[in-house]
Description:
The protein is α/β, with parallel strands linked by helices. It folds into two domains: 2-63, Phospho-2-dehydro-3-deoxyheptonate aldolase, domain 1 (Alpha-Beta Plaits, 2-Layer Sandwich), CATH 3.30.70; 83-332, Aldolase class I (TIM Barrel, Alpha-Beta Barrel), CATH 3.20.20. It is 35% helix and 18% strand. It has helices spanning 11-23, 50-54, 107-120, 144-157, 171-177, 191-198, 214-226, 254-261, 270-274, 277-290, 316-332, and strands at residues 2-5, 27-32, 37-42, 59-63, 83-85, 88-90, 96-100, 124-126, 161-164, 180-183, 204-207, 232-236, 266-268, 294-298. The strands form three sheets. An eight-stranded parallel β-barrel has the order 7-8-9-10-11-12-13-14, surrounded by seven helices. The protein has a four-stranded antiparallel beta sheet with strand order 2-3-1-4. A two-stranded antiparallel ribbon has the order 5-6. Helix 3 (107-120) packs parallel to helix 4 (144-157), helix 3 (107-120) packs parallel to helix 11 (316-332) and helix 6 crosses helix 7. The longest helix has 17 residues, at 316-332.
Amino acid sequence: MIVILRHGHTQEEFEKITKRIEDLGLTPHISKGKERTIIGVVGEDAIAHREQLELLPGVEKIIPILQPYKLVNREFKDTDTIVEVDGVRIGGNEIQVIAGPCSVEGREMLLTVARNIKGAGAKLLRGGAFKPRTSPYTFQGLGEEALLYLAEAKKETGLPIVTELMDPRDAELVYKYADVIQIGARNMQNFRLLKEVGGMNKPVLLKRGISATIMEFLMSAEYILSQGNQKVIFCERGIRTFETETRNTLDLSAVPVLKKLSHLPVIIDPSHGVGRWDLIDSMSKAAVAAGADGLMIEVHPTPEDALSDGPQSLRPERFAKLMEEIRAVARAVGRSI
């Protein structure tokens, strides 16, 4: 449920309210807006204590949240959350583009891509150090060596780093290098991992599971927020359907649906969404038109030699051309890139 404090409440009243919530065995989550402070109250039988909390000085009213996702819910926070990453704001009027190779394959390749995407206007660099692969015999990533290359690329270009965390045992290592920790589609419901990143003071990019519903997606984000980390970015990357012409079916309707139900920013990964480089342009432009707060696009200097996801990677020159095209779409819908 949500406890709405009256306008002009005192600090003493605020502290007594939060203490009372904790004394009841519940967890308070604070959201301070320009005009109102609200407290999300989470825990078993929270509604049962409604009357006790309503009588406290400083409380204006209490609103029950009927959906199972509480902190992610737009009822809890009616203004859009903006996640800031080294000065890059995700969720505001400016659409942010994350780009880079699927996997970090080597130092020179990564530096080449980083320089090119920055020149084209991308604001964050993606690159996999640990790779979840369907086959145990395919390239699994360079691990810590890749993280060192990512750190060097950031030092040269200034681009913040987005990389995936697959295992809680690697959490400390990835935390050291990453500016945004990615939770991949296969781990969207790895609840132990979600709790791990929920306890970190680091933005989390949460990808939708391969066959996950919107409700399941929201609940996975709830796991992270329930641990105290409210810096979560949704990433729609396509879902599995009966269609075989594309790698996945990119669900662009997820953008307005998630924005209606939640206050968290939403980005689109068209590369995994379709799995074909020749469809990335149209899907990227459609995502911007649909209201996405950002894009994550795979870029490789020689896709034919890529160790993973070559068929869905853009060459740097095509990526630069796409950036110009999506700027025009962004302007048409009143936003910028």
